[in-house]
Amino acid sequence: MTNYVYIATSLDGYIATSDGGLNWLLEVPNPEQSDYGFAEFIEGIDAIVMGRNTFETVVSFGVWPYERPVFVLSEHLKEIPGNLAGKAELTSGEVLTLVQELRRRGYENLYVDGGLTIQSFLAVDMIDELIITRLPVVLGAGIPLFGELAEMLQFEHVGTEVYNNALVKSHYVRANR
Amino acid sequence: MTNYVYIATSLDGYIATSDGGLNWLLEVPNPEQSDYGFAEFIEGIDAIVMGRNTFETVVSFGVWPYERPVFVLSEHLKEIPGNLAGKAELTSGEVLTLVQELRRRGYENLYVDGGLTIQSFLAVDMIDELIITRLPVVLGAGIPLFGELAEMLQFEHVGTEVYNNALVKSHYVRANR
Fold it and tell me: pLDDT tens digits, residue range B141-174?
């Protein structure tokens, strides 16, 4: 039963430009089309939890990329588009309640995605593992990965991999809880 | 002629707690008392530029740690304490003017330290190399390393080292200027 963050950020901690732009993520040359370990990561995931912003960004791609059930955590979204029935499900409320409900339904390992959603999980200390890939760019503005917390959270470093001599992916697990 | 940032941050990009606290930096076990490469770095430095906050933090240690001339960039500080005469010098004004003046005086390689000072150098694209050491903690609040920029700045990754299976130090140089 593990809740994971797996995300790319700029050196200054942004996951997207201020308007949600992700093009800067694609500017790092990737000649061998590495997936930077994503396929191996997603293999161990049972369901994905994301917020409305991330969901709408993914929908805007026009191709639904996930082979796992997606739960969209939003107080404002009215409904999931009909063509995504059975693939994405709308949910709302407290993080703890959501996690309990998903566990009850058999989803053990959750991939938590999107800035506000990750922040709401961290705020209640419900992230067990952080896998953060740093791109070699300082964006200077954007949508931040982290938000304010009442208490600091200690992690242990598990490992770091460098891809294409450009991306630095570090894996952390929650420690001293 | 290179301007360097060499600094430690939390995973969420803070260089100190909100009250300037640095104790969290010492919480990572360091059995062999590694300096994490600092001695080798400072070897190549001719002078250090820092802001008033960093200067006052260092002064509060009671022991002056630098063997290089320190320039304190501040509009508010009135004078440098007399016991630091010849070690630290007060300066103010534009970053570009300061750098030109220091170069004229023979200081080629500058170590730029402190959040606001680093941010003012980045704002005018005057940082050439970034050496950032990430500690495995999410502070949740504090003094940020990075600030807002009008333009994104691309860097190239030079190398990453992991110390004590805990600290991840990545070295970047400015690219595509």
Answer: 999 999 999 999 999 999 999 999 999 999 999 9
Domain ranges for chain A, please list them: 2-28+62-174
Q: Using an 8 Å Cβ cutoff, are A20 and A143 in contact?
A: yes
* Prediction ipTM score: 0.96
pLDDT in tens, B150-159: 999 999 999 9
Helix, strand and coil percent figures for chain B, each rounded to 5: 25, 35, 45
Mean per-residue pLDDT, B93-97 = 96
Distance of alpha carbon B94 from alpha carbon A81, whole angstroms: 54
Interface contact B124, partner A, CB < 8 A: no
Superfamily for the B2-27+34-174 domain: Dihydrofolate Reductase, subunit A (3.40.430.10)
Q: How many cross-chain Cβ pairs, A to B, lie less than 8 Å apart? A: 101
The reply to whether residue A149 touches residue B168, judged by beta carbons under 8 angstroms, is no
Give the global pTM.
Answer: 0.96
- Residue numbers in B near A150 (CB within 8 A): 140
With an 8 Å Cβ cutoff, are B155 and A138 in contact? yes
Q: Span A2-28+62-174: which CATH code?
A: 3.40.430.10
Q: Which residue, B31, B22, B21, B11, is CA-closest to B163?
A: B31
B59 neighbors B77 (Cβ within 8 angstroms): no
CB contact (8 A) between residue B12 and residue A146: yes
Q: Is B25 on the interface with A (CB under 8 A)?
A: no
